[in-house]
């Protein structure tokens, strides 16, 4: 499928998906969302793609939200369909069986912030800014923001940001736990690739089970979550990579994992 609004590139196991609508600060309209969904679907089945990076083109914006020009013309049913499309895609990103890193290179507003929160973790450049300004438009976050943000920053802080629509800089985002690391803008993509390469050195099944155990366990009570952890632990323990990892540790050598 040829893309008009995103760019995909795979290099040494790292699949980078770049939202590329620079004139609209990479805002997400319906065609862009559908292209993103297709790219995620391709990544799910691409055995060469070990880690995904999602970013935006240019130096100003990661994603400056949903495309308000499109949304302003939608009837209620159209607004519902667009929000359900975004939710479906962001859930696929959150639950894909591969690590997904958001490389946030500027404004992450509204739907852009929600996209970043659907990734496994967020590395931001020093010029990044964040907000959920939907109340200024008479709506609320609809692509998972009211659910993912409280899980990251706490209930009261999420309410504050969403009720005020306040924009925060990257220092505040780091303080409250909305982002995980801050790096110079010129170094952002290389620093994210370093992290991706580090993850790819680990046992692939173990990495998948970490993601699965955390994602699903947070939707359970503690007793159910720790029981689920037993199941994901056992899945990893049954692999040849577990045998290799323990042998390598005891022999004081680097493990050679093969995803078995």
What are its keywords?
Lyase 2-enoyl-coa Hydratase, Chain  A, domain 2, 2-enoyl-CoA Hydratase, Chain A, domain 1, four-stranded mixed β-sheet, alpha/beta, single chain, 260 residues
Write a structural description:
This protein has 11 helices and 10 strands. The chain has 260 residues and is α/β, with parallel strands linked by helices. It folds into 2 domains: 195 residues, Alpha-Beta Complex (2-enoyl-CoA Hydratase, Chain A, domain 1), CATH 3.90.226; 48 residues, Lyase 2-enoyl-coa Hydratase, Chain  A, domain 2, CATH 1.10.12.10. A hairpin with a 2-residue loop joins strand 1 and strand 2. The strands form 2 sheets. Strands 1-2-3-5-7-10 form a 6-stranded mixed beta sheet, sandwiched between helices. Strands 4-6-8-9 form a 4-stranded mixed beta sheet. 50% of the residues lie in helices and 16% in strands.
